[in-house]
Specification:
The structure holds 2 protein chains of 2 kinds.
Chain A (H helix, E strand, L loop, with lengths): L1 H14 L6 H5 L28 H10 L5 H14 L2 H5 L2 H10 L15 H17 L3 H5 L1 H14 L1 H5 L3 H19 L3 H5 L2 H7 L7 E5 L9 H5 L27 E5 L27
Antiparallel strand pairs in A: 1-2
Helix pairs in contact in A: 1-6, 3-4, 3-7, 4-13, 6-11, 7-13, 9-11
Chain B lengths: L1 H23 L2 H10 L2
Classes of the chains: A mainly alpha, B mainly alpha.
């Protein structure tokens, strides 16, 4: 049931920020005041139906113009401090697409652990450093979500845009195809290895208000949580893992539950387990 | 546990301060112009 609810939220996360449908018919961008609002989602604001701004695009624009992006960073940080990476797991449209693609029956592989540090490289290099040095929005130029929801629709709708297509467009298409095809074989390759927004949110997983709690007393270490995890981690190893998308799929297991930093004993146990990070209270039956 | 609560309060306060500074500097309008005129 929780799983279906997440699919509904993901559907809403894909539809609601892109509700300006007339943009596709009039070949125009929405230019109202909502466009100043950064959504905590990876959603391209060059999409003809986009109502809101992409926080990564906004941060990158500020970096390219030599300014500090207080507003976009503050928006992302407030969401991260509240729910950690939860928007990645429950609302992000590109994450939704990757979840669906992974359902395709095929051989399945595993992303190597070191690949998850690449998203921090993408954040530092492509969102801040290179745009600041070159004044060119390099992440947006290469972003697969931008190609899918911005570049491709515009190239289809506008002859002017088609006339401007150069070699960079085909590089963008190649990057999009790389992530689309790898999403069939691997769990969320873009979110784990390349998403700069996910990189920012993952910094907050340890201290966010919403937390995942694990009960070592009832956990049998069966590993089913890893099988259903959209990023292939074991929540029982580290409930505050920066990879965790806070999708709550694993809370189908009674040994894992959603809690907050204010809850000291989320499982209602008497003097056994603290529940977070697998820590056992000293001097107790479990400790 | 207390450490986590303190870390949350600290990050929440810092995030709110960042957002407030950004709004005070009129960055909403800059984001709007950038987003609308892509």
């Amino acid at each position: 049931m929780a799983f279906l609810r997440r699919r509904v939220y993901q559907g809403l996360g894909a539809i609601l920020p892109n509700a300006y449908v007339q943009g596709f018919f009039s070949a125009s961008l929405y230019q109202g005041s909502l466009k100043g609002v950064c959504t905590p989602l990876f959603n391209c604001y060059a999409c003809p139906s986009a109502l809101f701004s992409c926080p990564i695009g906004t941060m990158q624009h500020f970096a390219a113009t030599g300014k500090v992006p207080f507003y976009a960073a503050g928006t992302v940080a407030i969401v991260g401090a509240s729910v950690g990476r939860m928007t990645c797991g429950t609302l992000c449209p590109f994450g939704f697409l990757q979840d669906i693609l992974f359902k395709v029956r095929s051989w399945k592989g595993r992303l190597p652990g070191w690949a998850s540090s690449l998203r921090y490289v993408a954040l530092v290099l492509l969102v801040f450093l290179v745009p600041a040095l070159t004044q060119v929005h390099w992440f947006s130029r290469l972003c697969p979500m931008g190609t899918l929801t911005g570049g491709l629709p515009w190239a289809t709708m506008s002859g002017g845009v088609r006339a401007m297509i150069g070699s960079l467009f085909w590089v963008k298409i190649g990057i999009l195809l790389l992530f689309v095809t790898s999403s069939v074989l691997l769990k969320r390759p873009f979110c784990r290895a390349a998403c700069p927004l996910g990189a920012i949110f993952s910094l907050f997983n340890r201290s966010s208000f919403l937390q995942l709690a694990w009960n070592p007393d009832t956990c049998t270490r069966c590993g089913k949580c890893q099988k259903i995890c959209p990023v292939d981690i074991r929540p029982d190893d580290n409930p505050t893992n920066p990879e965790c998308l806070r999708c709550w799929d694993c809370t189908r297991c009674p040994s894992l539950t959603m809690t907050t930093v204010l809850h000291r004993n989320p499982f209602g146990l008497t003097g056994t387990a603290e529940g977070r990070g697998g820590k056992i209270l000293p001097g107790t039956s479990a400790g | 546990m207390k450490y986590r609560t303190a870390a949350f309060l600290l990050t929440a306060a810092a995030s709110a301060a960042l957002l407030a500074i950004g709004l005070f500097r009129g960055e909403f309008a800059k984001a709007l112009v950038n987003g609308a005129l892509l």
